[in-house]
Amino acid sequence: MNITLPKMKECEYRVTAPPSKSYTHRALIIAAIAHGVSEITNPLDSGDTRVTCRALRALGAGISGEPGMLRIRGCSGHFSCEKMTALDMENSGTSFRLLTAATLLCPQPVIFTGSPRMQERPVGHLVEALNSIGGRIRYLSNAGYPPVLVEGRIRGGVVSIPGTISSQFISALMIPAPYADADVEVLVTGDIASRSYLDITADCMETFGVKPGREGYHRFMIRSGTGYEGRNYTIEGDYSSASYFFAIAAVCGGFVEVAGLNPGSVQGDRMFVDALGRMGCRVTYQADSIRVERTGDLTGITMDMSSSPDTVQTLCMVAAMASTPSHITGTSHLKYKESDRLNATVDLLNGLGGNASMTGDGISITPVPLHGGVVDPGDDHRTAMSAAVLALTRGDITIRNAGCVDKSFPDFFEIIRGIAPE
Q1: Within 10 A of 324 (CB to CB), how many other CB atoms are there?
Q2: CATH architecture of 21-222
Q3: Would you place residue 166 in the very low, low, confident or very high pLDDT band (cuts 50, 70, 90)?
Q4: What CATH class does 3-18+237-415 carry?
Q5: What residues act catalytically?
Q6: CA distance 346 to 357
Q7: Mean pLDDT, residues 187-203 taken together
Q8: Could you report the per-residue pLDDT of 343-365, keeping only the tens digit for each?
Q9: Which residues of the chain form CATH 3.65.10.10?
Q10: How many CB atoms lie within 10 A of CB 246?
């Protein structure tokens, strides 16, 4: 599906944020290994979360429900599945990483595979860490990369893991740890990519009855024998998905109000709204919504986005429309996402006449007049949605394979067409 969006002169609209993908993944997995029944209200229904649901069912969790609610019968820390069950994680890195660790709660070996891109995404640090505390995980093709065969059990102990590639490796170690034979202590070395997602993990764990001990972001302690209890749980709105609407107001002028967002959320992508405020937008926080308005010029920004990885590309699109240069840092781990988002962002902007370059662990953008063209997002949902922000400033930018947004935001282009009709 190729999409060419019309030019939007000025926006005035209100929209509700879709549910958080990060919270949905974690709540589904924790509920599936908890004791008792959980009802998850407002879960995100997307390609990635459907991958997680299918895998959990295959592992023995009972999942049923209706639109807007899922009922999950937990397995009390003991998955059951057939020997050599093969789980296709497609291109969902979150599903792959979190479930690889959780599957050590299953007494049978399980095979994890995925898309060609998934088989290029490194998992060596996670596998090494899991094997050090009882896993017997083996690579089935290339060492350090999927597919893998998962077997063993979590015996507990002290485990060290680098934080540079993905915070999901750390979250993966934390989530099943209450069911280890002994206490688990996770020591994180080096810089931590996307550390705000560890706050989301800890928040979900505590909601279901297990509060990790922690020293900042470098040491987490989880007691064995504690276990999760089923809960009624509502998923909050997603700041990553809301960022595209805020960005449209920034580049097109006018205002947007996004409802369904928790103003006190621990989501790191909440910083995106602050970035727009620094660039010249007026930001207004209300009880359960945020309004962003632009009436004057945008100025460039220098900002560390290491805790807000999913909004880096969106911020780059806004920076391309500012009046002065921008330098966005803390982005090196983006090369390990669904695509190499560093190169993808630079190629996208320069392909439309922009002036963007990679510098160290960041991206530098000098605003220049853009022209129309065709954007191939490389099957990356966030590249496609970021491109839509620029597309609305011109009316002559075509996005190829726009259906890839199903991964996190299936209704994205339907909503965009509603606020920017032909």
Answers
A1: 13
A2: Alpha-beta prism (3.65)
A3: confident
A4: alpha beta
A5: 310
A6: 6
A7: 90
A8: 899 999 999 999 999 887 789 99
A9: 3-18+237-415, 21-222
A10: 27
